[in-house]
Design brief:
The protein is an all-alpha fold and 277 residues long. It has 12 helices and no strands. It is globular.
Length: 277
Amino acid sequence: MLEAIFLGIVQGLTEFLPISSSAHVRLFGEFLPSGSDPGATFTAIMQIGTEIAVLIYFRSDLVRILKAVVRFILRKPIEPGSADEQSARLGGLILLGSIPIFLLGFLGQSYIRENFRSLWLISFTLIAFGIALGLIDHYGKKVKSLDELNRRDGLIYGLAQSLALVPGVSRSGATIAMGRFLGYKREAALRYSFLLAIPAVLGSGTYELLNSLTEPTNTFSLLETASATLVAFLVGYAVIAWLMKFVQTRSFMPFVIYRILLGVLIIVLLASERITA
């Protein structure tokens, strides 16, 4: 139970930062008394907790989007250029951007589980995508708001999000970097990253939760997993509130440096056989 709660704290602290929560959960599992990979199932279920934090934090945005989408579906008149039209469009773009990760995650599920959890791979993705995030954030334009998001950008955002299927990439890191590359302001890129993750994370977590009830593959019991998910929710909510304020005045460079240092540390630990891949 203590291990599960600890990993819930790790999940909550790292889910929204561009440093890869799945990489941290995978790595810290090696140093716990059990000394094993917590597993993709446990990680995906915990992410439900952090995503519920997103639902609550952005509840006003989501209610506005849902109302506008329902009006559009029911063919009720929406004034062109109004807030309702923008909300309905944003809802449609979130669904469009979710298609790549749903397709790749469903089709490549077995391959991802068997080949993408090596710590060697995680160390290199931490370093490579950390460097990419740093360069793009520094040199990227800072002109677009979410009101300027179009279908092309929404789909490209979605393709970037699908890279998060590889532990170490970071869902928020990949989507934020792509948003900055496309010219969106730092806060706009972060906000859309949070909203875009909702369908993918809730879908993946629910799927894994239902699977764990019929085919137990989880390292932890249902009660332990539930406790970790609750802790991840509480910690994750606090991190969202802090991060949204942080990016208004600061760059992502501290996270870039952290990613590179962590990647190098993992390589050193693997090379010295202190941990196994």
